[in-house]
Amino acid sequence: MVSQAEPLDRTFSVRRPPSLSSRTTITRRQRQHRSHHGGSSYQPQNEFPIFTNTGDVEIVIDSGGREQRYLLHRLILAQCAAFFEVGTSQEWTRQPSGPDQPLEVVEEASVLIGGGEPGRGPPAGRAAEVKRRWRYELDRGNGEDEIPMLVQKNPSTTLFGGDHLPRPPPIRSKPPVSQAGFFRSMANFSAIHLPTHSHQPEEMENDTLRDYDNLFRIFYNYAPNLDPVNIANAYVQCKSLLNLADMYDALEVVGPRVDHHLLQFQGRLWKQIAKYPPSYLKIGYLARSKVIFAEAMVHVVGQWPSGANHLRSQVPEQVMEVIEDKVEDLEDLKGRIEGRLFRLTLTTPRGERVTPSNGYLAWTAVSLFRQWLAENTTPPPIPHHKDIRRSGGGGGGIDGRSQAPLPPAPPPVNVGRVYRLLGTGGPSYLGRDELKRFLKLRPDEYSRDTLKRFEQRMEEIKDQAREMARPLMRNFLELDLGKEGGSLGYLTCTRVEERDFPWEE
């Protein structure tokens, strides 16, 4: 038998080089996804501030002739602000029964898959998936005194994000033909730091747009656009933002962001709080900032009642209760220490209190110290002026007498400065020259030895007074007061504890 070779069914083809084959494949893939220049294809935006695919709450802010639109998520808005939680809840919203209802049910594209058509129900055997939409617009009210507020409106019935949203421009597949100087300008442009978000405070001429933009940025964990250099501008922006968050019950979310931004100023912030403690007490309360609130509280209590008019009608009652309690505690402490200072005395070598009979020079030093303390801690008496009869005898007053002008009120006693002098001791008060002038009132008893012994006894009194005044010398401020308390004329020994923060109740 002769065996015959079986014919081969395989056909051989010329194999191209790997590089050429892969290059052709890559080229084809790129052509499949390439958009033609000037075509109508576009990629819808699905990021802050417009979530075209997933957003279900449209917010329109129209202010000063400018309009800003947001398409956000009901879930995030409800978690951050109680205003949106209530406004988009089942109890607040209803099924539409007319054109004036606040909500409208919009069919999603999912009901059209599998044979459905727009305007008709879903195909048989498929449950209709619906999605509720909410639309808010900024309403400025009828009067100028009314505060602008978001109100719920009836959204338009649209598919795939709605026709009320601006259509993005078509995406170009390649840049236009390069012109002269194009590459040079691009080289310079690359050195500029571009922000991640186009809404900068400098570009927003209207504060309302800026505040709402910062509010929604914080909701989505973006940093707010607040002035990082000028603390005065930052304060105004933070105050406006906190007032807006208070309107929509979102202070728990916005407050920590404002607190973090202001604390970045550090030393400049402490100086600003010292200048305007009532204002920063209010902003610290709104921002739930323990550091700012405590810093401002120390200044307010030390200056009380100078800032009472700015606070009584502008802060909650629980804040006023904390202030009044701290003021009362400070007054009690000063009263106890002042009583001890007036009872201060010296003793003889036998341990007896000095008297004019057993230690005249030491008793004189104690008397001088008490006189100095009384003059510096008590306001001066108001002088009494009698009516002066006019020389011309003319009228102008009762029985031809004219009333003399009332004397000006005595300046308030700077108790803080007095206690700081007591806490410092040494030559800060009742120095050598003043003691010398006092002893020379009786020249027959003055001598260098007497002056030396008098100074020693006075130093003993100052040492005791410094120890007594030590509780008032404590400083609970972040501000550095220096060795002698700086230029502050009030006490800063008020301590704000955890239970004193009114929002912790």
In short:
The protein is α+β, with helices and mostly antiparallel strands and 505 residues long. The protein is built from 16 helices and 9 strands.
What does this structure look like?
- The N and C termini lie far apart (108 Å).
- The chain is of the alpha+beta class and 505 residues long.
- It has helices spanning 18-32, 74-80, 82-87, 182-189, 207-219, 231-247, 251-263, 267-275, 277-286, 290-303, 308-311, 317-342, 360-377, 415-424, 432-439, 448-468; strands at residues 46-47, 50-51, 57-63, 66-72, 104-107, 130-139, 149-153, 388-389, 401-402.
- The strands form three sheets. Strands 3, 4, 5, 6 and 7 form a five-stranded mixed beta sheet that branches.
Low-confidence stretches: 5-40, 95-119, 124-129, 157-205, 387-396
Biggest sheet overview: 5 strands, mixed
**Amount of helix:** 25-40%
Strand composition percent: 5-15%
Features:
505 residues; alpha+beta; 5-stranded mixed β-sheet; two-stranded antiparallel sheet
Topology:
Layout: H1 18-32, E1 46-47, E2 50-51, E3 57-63, E4 66-72, H2 74-80, H3 82-87, E5 104-107, E6 130-139, E7 149-153, H4 182-189, H5 207-219, H6 231-247, H7 251-263, H8 267-275, H9 277-286, H10 290-303, H11 308-311, H12 317-342, H13 360-377, E8 388-389, E9 401-402, H14 415-424, H15 432-439, H16 448-468
Parallel strand pairs: 3-6
Antiparallel strand pairs: 1-2, 3-4, 5-6, 6-7, 8-9
